[in-house]
Amino acid sequence: MQPGVIPSPKTGRELVDEYFIENRTRLLEIAAFLDRLDRTDASLVDRDFRVRAFRDALRLLDARPAAGEAQTRVERIQHLLSDPTTEPLEKLDTKSARGAYDRWQLGVA
Amino acid sequence: MMRYVDLHAHMVSRTTDDYLQMALTGCVAVTEPAFWAGWDRSSADGFEDYFRHLTDFEPKRAAQYGIRHFAWLCLNPKEGEDRQLAREVLSRIPRYLQSPTVLGIGEIGLNRVTRNEIATFRDHVELALEHDQLIHIHTPHLEDKYKGTRTIVDILTEYDRIEPSRVMIDHAEEHTLPIILENGFWTGLTLYPQTKVSPERAIDMFERYGTDRICVASACDWGPSLPDAVPHFALAMRRRGHAAALIDSIIYGNPIAFLGQSPKFDVGAEPRSGEAATTVSPRDHTAATSSAGVAAA
Question: Which of A9, B98, B176, B243 is deepest in the core (most CB within 10 A)?
Fold first, then answer.
């Protein structure tokens, strides 16, 4: 990843000191969400495109960008969740987006 | 004292307490794009009442708190599928463009990226060009954002008459910001508690891409949103260690550089000692410079 146009005023150590606790909290919230789903219906990952996209996105979190890879983690997750098609819809299907593109045509469980 | 312009705020959905909070945190002006009410209006008359609200009542309400209020008019993308209604509403907009607080056409754009939405979007672009108006654009939500932003940029670049520096393509995120900036448009980062962008991610984007042609706004409306999102962003910038002058250039200098291209826009403020006047002349792109020295166009 290229260095930023505006350098971070804080060092890496200082960023960890300042933001570790709140991001630890976010990590545990995601873990608890997945545990909650497991207690109700562990098969949702096979039947609900949102859960499958979520699981796939988690795998990208720990994947370091390869050498020469321009996209950051957040960009790769954004694209994973995005509609990759280019053709307009013939007519309006629903008023609101749902947060992930159903690339598997799974639908909602 | 901190000062800021909230370039995107749906104040018809907010209380007077919100105006008070914004004034107390340094807000000097808001601009309010026409948007979806959360339900579809039943007629062009309904839109006309809304336009009267935006151009008459709301500026008076804001003025009670020392805040200048400006508006953008359109039929929003969520209702753009109804082509007949869109044509009727668009025919009524020109008379309101004469209002002293209307800055342009907005927030037009796309929702689910349908053929009818695209046709309605093009009609609005033509209207803006015909009346020499600034344009403010909404990009779709969530999984539709990338496709919608790509489509909007492709359409706009078809028009030789469009000056990208007079167009704001709003609600950018990490995967759409480069597309917008590379084509010369202004863009906005929407500070929402759930969808769109958090203050921390917005700061990351400024650190990666610089401050040129990027604004932040609350887009506060009837959903989960904060009328004081911009000062929250400023606080997060300070926590990250950024200088006050840089923060001021983003939350005050940049929106003024974009909005000042309309001769109607004026925050009515005297420049602080050591800085240039903050109101720029319309079309004077060389003068459209933020306080960080970043060229606007």
Answer: B176
CB A95, CB B144: distance < 8 Å: no
Residue-wise pLDDT tens digits, B69-116: 999 999 999 999 999 999 999 999 999 999 999 999 999 999 999 999
In a domain, A55, yes or no: yes
Q: Chain B partners of A5 at a C-beta cutoff of 8 Å? A: 207-210
Q: B4-259, which class in CATH? A: alpha beta
pLDDT on residue B295: 30
Q: Which structural domain range is residue A20 located in?
A: 13-41
Domain match, A63 and A30 both? no
For B207, the closest of A8, A78, A101 (CB atoms) is A8
Q: Is A47 found in the same domain as A35?
A: no
Q: Write the DSSP assignment of B85-124 as a string of letters.
A: HHHHHHHHSGGGGGSTTEEEEEEEE-SS-BHHHHHHHHHH
> What is the number of CB-based contacts under 8 A between chain A and chain B?
97
- A29 shares contact with chain B (CB less than 8 Å): no
